[in-house]
Design brief:
Radius of gyration: 19 Å
Largest sheet: 9 strands, mixed
CATH architecture: Roll
Structural class: alpha+beta
Helix content: 10-25%
Number of helices: 5
CATH superfamily: 2,3-Dihydroxybiphenyl 1,2-Dioxygenase, domain 1
Strand content: 25-35%
Number of domains: 1
Length: 331
Amino acid sequence: MLEDIFIPKSSVDAARVSPLHTVTIITSDKEQLERIFCEGYKLEFSGWKSCSDTCVSQYLLLDTNNTFEFGLFYLSAPHNNIQIRVLAHNEDSGPIRPSTTGLHLGGATLSFPIEDLYEHEKTMRSLEISSTMGVKEMEFTSPTGETYISAEIVYPVADNVFVMGVKRPDIFIPVGPVKERTKIGAAAYSSRCIQHTEKTLKFFQDILGYEIRRDVEFVVGEQSALNMPEGTNERFIQGFAPGSASGYVVLMDHKDGNIPAADDNYLPPKRGIVMWSFETSDLDAIVSQAEEIGVEVLKTPDKYGSPGLPSSRSAILKDPDGFAIEVFESV
């Protein structure tokens, strides 16, 4: 019998932080993202809310002189998973990823479980959103050595973010819970391209307490759905919070093919996927241990009122690959 890495062997009691709670995107085209997430992926939407609080802007690393808008895209329980927080503001800071090649460092993808990828592509075409190459089937190897086929489809959207659909074989659980009516679930994972892999892995394992359930290397074949050249070397890593089956993170290292940002900056107010947020019951311990291994604390623990999060206190860390990691305690 095939072993499924999505079925946890550990207990949630061992978790230091939650599964990935929120992915933050800064966009230049909020109308496109609203159309994609609401009509294409059937998510619920909070509506756009304006924020002129300079303290909140400063906390989110934005220009404090500009008002910004934010909206939340999600599914309610029992189908809840990763929440998407979209920030729209007038500062022309440029995208983290200047093109749609998958080799650019920084936040890359948001991926959703979808039962019928072919029907979903028709829906996206009706919204004038094209995939990179249609549905692509890929071969994976289980921890026990058996191979199986999963399918995915990739859509480049505003600011060169990739929004994906994923269908695992029926012998496995899907990458996240799926609504019976729409056959689509909330975002189940997000990926980033990294270069300081061992240091970033240490951060996720030692500070956030994540389990690495897959860590493999392979050579990219022809017709990459993420627009990568044939022959690219990739290290592909999947990390989960203990006890969880979804809300996971994917880290990809393309070795000599990595393309750093021109200014080596992957933080807000640059546009694209700029932050991952995790819930914890002991914020001070997380921040203290991060400082002990030399992680930069961008925002120290305080009552910032991070938009869209049920937080009483939060902090923002800069992980070894320069990406913003928000950690918060619930109200």
